[in-house]
Design a protein that fits this description.
binds heme C, 2 domains, about 0% strand, mainly alpha, Cytochrome Bc1 Complex, Chain D, domain 2, 6 helices
């Protein structure tokens, strides 16, 4: 039991360190991939969240065929203000406009 607990402590330590390291990287320039994975992937990678909400799936050319032509600017505005069944900022109330935009860029890049 004590062994398991100390392993757990080490794990939590490492996890905290890696989160801190990632946050440091993002201070300069938010990575779209990081924002996406943390705040958008639940709904936008298919699976249960995607099925449940009907969110366009990243990586699906079919889902993005009609969205991509709107362009990054319009898609970012729609995400920030909310559209259809998606709440404003895709529910990420702490995300800045730049972070939303970089996440949208990441999504488009992965869905071409
Ligand atoms: C709770 C689920 C959920 C989360 C979390 C979420 N989305 Fe969405 N998203 C949706 C749904 C549902 C739609 C489809 C909206 C519609 O057209 O009815 C959508 C649509 C979009 C679109 C297309 C907008 C358009 O113009 O049609 C973009 C871009 C998008 N989301 C980006 C994001 C980004 C970036 C994040 C993370 C910051 C995010 N979403 C988080 C559910 C979600």
């Amino acid at each position: 039991m004590r062994y398991i607990r100390s392993q757990l402590a080490v794990f939590i330590c490492l996890a905290t360190l890696s989160i801190a390291a990632t946050a440091g990287d993002n201070a300069a320039e938010p990575s779209g991939e990081t924002v996406f994975k943390a705040h958008c992937a639940n709904c936008h990678t298919g699976g249960f969240g995607g099925f449940f909400t009907g969110a366009p799936k990243v990586g699906s050319q079919k889902d993005w065929k009609e969205l991509t032509p709107k362009g990054v600017d319009a898609l970012t505005v729609n995400t920030v203000t909310g559209i259809g069944d998606m709440a404003p900022r895709g529910e990420c109330t702490t995300c800045t406009d730049e972070e939303i935009r970089s996440a949208v860029e990441y999504m488009l890049e992965k869905s071409r």
